[in-house]
Amino acid sequence: MFNIQIMKIKYRKWGLRLVATCIVVLGLLLAIVLNPILLYANKSNVGNYTICSQHLPDPYFIERLNNATELLKTSELYDGNQKLTICINDGSAFPRLVQAIQGPAFAYAYYHNVVLNGAVNARDNYVELNGYKWNLTELLAHEATHCMQSRKYGLLHSNPIARYPQWKWEGYPEYVARKNKASLSENISHLIETEHTDNNNWISFDDSTGTVIPYYKSWLLMQYCLDIRKMSYTQLLEDTTCEALFTQYMMNWYATRK
Fold first, then answer.
1. For the residues of 151-169, what is the DSSP string, one character each?
2. How many CB atoms are located within 10 Å of the residue 45 CB?
3. What pTM does this model have?
């Protein structure tokens, strides 16, 4: 009986130590995730941006970032006082850490951080991942728009907590990032043509970059709602019309343009 009590005390101590260790590890992980510079050799301040990299940023990268800023200024969510941290995948362990947590993707945005996971070619203006290329300027604008969404609506009213339909949450960053890239009718025609090919869920643009088809479709719905129906993004978030019905409205509109 005495031995059993001793063992229970030992198990309890081991359990408490394990819990304490987990809390410490999670605390360290959270500190690193919220402060990427801890895993980078270099920090450069450019305007409202802090660029984290292993080397000094390529001048071409700064040019792409400035171009992305001009796109962001067209958004109703733009706040010139918002400061963002841009994390480049150039040898630091940080992008690998984020991918381990979130899974593979061209980039991620959270809080005030934008993390580029693919290989960056700033001169030719693209990020490459698994053989696919995404326009670098547009990717920076897309992810920064997610940060603007979070800043504007707050944690509780942003995805994933708010659970807005993905086409609304991802479509708006695509809309901002690809501003004036093509008209809605041109984009719909391009989508129809692509869907008749072996597209592997990818749609390409003239600059040899592209995006996944679900994001592309979300962008088109944004063009329809914001440009044709003249809704604001905030109004659209509050609107209860389903994606299928908006798509039907959009295609009816497209039929009149042919």
1. HHH-GGGSTTTS---HHHH
2. 9
3. 0.88
